[in-house]
Specification:
- The chain is an alpha+beta fold.
- The chain has three domains: 155 residues, Beta Barrel (At1g16640 B3 domain); 134 residues, no CATH class; 122 residues, Restriction Endonuclease.
- Strands 1, 2, 3, 4, 5, 6, 7, 8 and 9 form a nine-stranded mixed beta sheet that branches.
- The protein is flat, with a radius of gyration of 26 Å.
- The protein starts with 17 loop residues before the first helix and ends in a 7-residue tail after the last helix.
- InterPro entries: DNA-bd_pseudobarrel_sf, EcoRII_C_sf, Restrct_endonuc-II-like, Restrct_endonuc_II_EcoRII_C.
- It holds the Pfam family EcoRII-C.
- This is Restriction endonuclease type II EcoRII C-terminal domain-containing protein.
Length: 453
Amino acid sequence: MTTQIDMFDDGDNGGAMLLVELLRSASLVLVKKLSNNDRDWAQFPNKHQGGVYIPPAQRESGFFPQLVEKARADGEATIRECFFRTEWPQVDMVREKTRLVHYTSKGAETHMTGVPKPAFATLSPASFLVMGRYVTEGVSIYRCLTIDSASADALLLIDTLSLPADFVSGIFEPAAALAAERDAILDFAGRAIEAWLAGEIAAFADGNAALPSTVVLARMARDRYLADHGLTTLDPWAIERPGDAVREISRTIEWELFREFQRRERAIMLVRTILGDTPSDVTAAGIIRSVIDNIGEVDRLMLSASQQRKSRAGYSFEHQIEAMLAAGAVPFEKQVVMDARKRPDFILPSLVRFTTPAPGATNGLILSAKTTLRERWKQVQREMAGGDLFLATVDESIAANAIEDMASLGIVLVVPETLRESRSTEYVRHANVIGFDEFFHEELRGRRMTGWA
């Protein structure tokens, strides 16, 4: 059986980073978040799609060769198609006649077929197809990667191309995206160099390089969201789709703010690493020598961005849920230590009412917040303590079998409304998955809160 190559393996493939190389070398790149149909055909024997749906905007963008009408008998619906070579280095396969076909009788529907099943067979929901176009002597060749949504590679892709949380598909010029990020860092580095020349780099760093605490950054993102939407509080009873609001704040707005602070931090650290803190006569040769001498530190700074974001993302999600509970006057206690050192994110309405319900009152519940799940939901299971457990997440990569395992244990998943409805996730198929709107309006206000007074 053909298996996928680990793109960041340091073994026999010489540490080759296929995604990084593609983004550096391809003039144009198509990225598509895969729907369930885009990958189910490779995972289940009863599926017949046999390829990937390509949206009309990308089909007609000029990224692919021009579609040509296929010869048909009189009266038959028009079929437009083209053929091209695709290379799939992760599975070591080449397809000389990958086909893009538009059956006009089916409306806008267009499929790319003639692609290798092993490239799609083990992907998680909401994974990505990345296609780089290379033109040689007027002929286009396409290098293709599938990026599993549960992998660190997905975060690298999202960060490099600044893909928003609601991204579906698009065509990018990677060089332009990378140049824009580099220019943003260098623009601020220019200000840092001016401070260095004035002998004020340390003070400049103190005032500009520090990342706000997770609480402060979360509040900044929330304030921007409220201003953009003409709201005064994050009241879940007043917001039509409260889960989408939390997702937009924590996964889009706060990330944009974080990246700006991070650019400043990295620009200042690069200047101080290469030039030091004390102004001196600097020559080109001296700067080059300093870069060489500190190349390991420079690499570490430039590569630390994604990991830093990942470590803070969970706090952001938790902070926004806390703000929403408070704005909705939902009684809760946060991070209360239970028996055996269990410390759930939120207990509603309180630890006392959870462990010892009042006579005739509805039960309390535990609400745990996890940006990404993977196997972490098994740890959350230990927090149940015989009560109801609701697990809030914005993770799109959870497979059906994991959702079913959680259902068997009585765990209810709470997800943003858009993810609940999405054709890229597997949430819509399961009764133990609800949206934030259902959680607040039906589970809390409809069933429980009247008994918590």
